[in-house]
Amino acid sequence: MKRRKFLKNSSAATAGLFSASIASAAERLNPDAEDQRSLSIKKYPRVIATWDVPNATAKAWEILEKGGNSLDAVEQGVRMEEADVNNQSVGKGGRPDRDGNVTLDACIMDKDSNCGAVVYLQNITHAVSVARKVMEETPHVMLAGKGAEQFAYENGFKKEDLLTEASKKEWLEWKKTSKYQPIINIENHDTIGMLALDKNGDIAGACTTSGMAYKIGGRVGDSPIIGAGLFVDNEVGGATATGVGEEVVRTVGSFLIVELMRQGKSPQEACEEGVKRILARNSDRPDFQIGFIAMNKAGETGGYCIHPGFSYREFSEEGHTNTASESHIKG
Ligand code: SD4
């Protein structure tokens, strides 16, 4: 039986068991399905990233447009933010922990589910590239702290002081009260999670951050944890997160969103469900921010957050846009 006919027949025969949304998602995720609608949905190459990071998405697009692969696109894209000292949530210039140390978390994942991560990395700007080296040059997935730093030096990365004057000044000011109280959308904004689909329709993702400002020394968030801050599955799509990492870890947020897409939800619906899952565990205190973005294999995208203020950048043949994310709590 032809695949499309099977989908139609089964939904008619077992209404309720095989919902229309699952049928349409199955078609959406199978570009080779005999369905003109799904064939017409092929919105790639495309890159999407958390927050308004035009330099990062433009860099990734430059690679995708030339036919480069999604892994190079996400690595080179997020490196733009790591190098930007004015982004105080990523790489050089990131806000320090409570002791004044800038410590970075990053991960990367490719179309074959290979992945690499570094956590609590100091003195190296491009944590994402160290993560890629871990993925490609070692039998491991994650390196931490001194071991990660040593590995980076052995692979040619240079030692740099990541604490800028601006971040140092803010930290010294913070020390006067020493109150750990992340502020929605202000503190830590711009942690970058990026997903790219290349001309071949292959997906990759990267996520990099200096983590929550003034955290306890040694704290690791969601961003470098595969499944939490980032997850891609080349059969389905990808998702990545920003915000208070502890909450994303508790729900394995990005993996959850990819699995919801596998079950039939659109990227937008999956992000909304991911945020609602987190809120269900925090009904008494939704006073923190989480933002998710997702992209499926057709290049359809979505984003959702708890509080207004989160946005995401996309670059494709349709143009370069910054979209204000819908939020659970209205402004
Ligand atoms: C963390 N998720 O370390 C990161 C912080 C972040 O926007 O994304 N801020 O928890």
What report would you give on this structure?
There is one protein chain. The protein is α+β, with helices and mostly antiparallel strands and 331 residues long. The protein folds into 2 domains: 1-41; 43-84 and 104-112 and 179-327, 4-Layer Sandwich (Glutamine Phosphoribosylpyrophosphate, subunit 1, domain 1). It is 34% helix and 21% strand. The chain has 11 helices and 13 strands. Helix 4 (54-65) packs antiparallel against helix 5, helix 5 runs antiparallel to helix 6 and helix 10 (253-262) packs across helix 11 (267-280). The radius of gyration is 20 Å and the shape is globular.
In short:
The protein is built from eleven helices and 13 strands. The protein has helices spanning 3-13, 20-28, 36-40, 54-65, 70-83, 127-137, 145-154, 165-175, 245-251, 253-262, 267-280, and strands spanning 46-50, 104-109, 115-121, 142-144, 192-197, 203-209, 230-233, 237-243, 290-296, 301-305, 311-316, 319-324, 326-327.
Secondary structure category: alpha+beta
Bound molecules: N-hydroxy-L-asparagine
Number of strands: 13
Shape: globular
Detail the poorly predicted runs.
Answer: 1-23, 33-39
Q: Order of helices and strands, N to C?
A: HHHEHHEEHEHHEEEEHHHEEEEE
CATH class of the largest domain: Alpha Beta
Mean pLDDT: 88
CATH topology-level name of the largest domain: Glutamine Phosphoribosylpyrophosphate, subunit 1, domain 1
Number of domains: 2
The helix fraction, in percent, is: 25-40%
Share of residues in strands:
15-25%
> What is the gyration radius calculated from CA atoms?
20 Å
- Write out the CATH superfamily name of the largest domain: (Glycosyl)asparaginase
CATH architecture of the largest domain: 4-Layer Sandwich
Q: Give a short account of the largest sheet.
A: 8 strands, mixed
* Continuous helix count: 11
| Cα end-to-end separation | 50 Å
Largest sheet, order of strands side by side? 4-3-2-6-5-1-11-12
GO molecular function: hydrolase activity, acting on carbon-nitrogen (but not peptide) bonds, in linear amides
Protein name: Glycosylasparaginase
Keywords: Signal
Pfam families: Asparaginase_2
